[in-house]
Each structure stands twice: as structure tokens, then as C-alpha cells.
Task: structure prediction
Amino acid sequence: MSLYFTLLFALLTVEMAVLFVLVLPLPNKIRKLLYNTYQRLYHNQQVKTVTIILSIIVGLLFIDSWKRAQVNVTLYRHQNYNQDDRLNIANQYDSHAVTPTQALASRAYNQRNVYISGFILYFMVGIPTVMSIVRRLVKYQDLISNKKTQEKDDSEIIRLKKELDAKTVDVETLQKQVTNAEKYFDEQNKPKTETVTKTE
Result:
């Protein structure tokens, strides 16, 4: 395999590893971290430029390998018998029309290159698609967790309101008791001069 297809195979391996990690059932924090990293890379202009150039190069290699892989193959078993001399085994096949082994090997290499570059292009489309699904998963998981915390907060608020109502009733009762006690003490401690003047 040539150097550039070795690099492309390494790129294909990296893309498969990234896609494998993305589809794992990871916790929401790790998914959010992966998505935020992807967003930072996606909004970086240099990364966009490298991705576009790389996809153009891989696309050109795909087209080139596809064209080179379109070789008509003729094997010995595909040849017709020579009509004039059926008994002569040496003349049974037309050996000039048979595809040479080197052409078959070149065709196999080009087919391999078609598969590698094709899958790279496929994963270049697949990874952003999976990331959009991960984005929705993170968003909905955050909404669910916010709703759960809000429900916890709501139940806490309801409990605290009940406690506040009970304390308010206690305070009102205590205030009534204080006012009644003040009235009672005021009545008990009226000045005695009023009673003396009444008796005179």
C-alpha cells in the first residue's frame, strides 16, 4: 500500500474509533464533553478548511481508484473453444485475450483503495449525523434532569409552604395569647385610685 493510502487507512481507523465512542452508552457528562469538543472543532475555521481539503482529496482518490478498478477481466474459463481444432489442447484457449496477473493485482489494489476512500467519505458524513443525534440526546437529558430538579424543588417548596403555614398559625395563636394575657394583666393591674373614688 502506498504512503498516502496508508495515511488514509489510519484516518479511516480514527474515524471508526470516533464513531464507536460516539455510539457507546456513555454518561451524560461525557456525552456533553464530547459534543462541546466537537462544537469547538466545528467552529474553528482551520479545522473546517482542513476537513474540506481532505474530503476533496479523498473524493478525487475515490474517483481515480474507481476508474482504475474498471478493468475488463477475461480468464481462461471464459474463453471459447477453438472451433477448428477441438482436439488440440494447446489451441483450446486464446491466450492473448486473457487478462494478465499483474492487471488483476492492480485491479484488486484499486478496488481496495475504492473501499478505503469510500468508507472515509461515508464516515465524514456519518460522524456529523451521529453528533446531531448526540446533541439531541444531551439536550433532552438536560431537560429531563432540569425537570427532575424542578420537581424536587417544587416538592421542597410545597413542604416549606406547609411548614410556613403551620408556623404562621402558631405565630397568630401566640399573638392572640399575648394580647389576651396583656388584657388580663391590664385588668388585674388597674390603678386602685379609681376604686377608692367610687367608694367615696
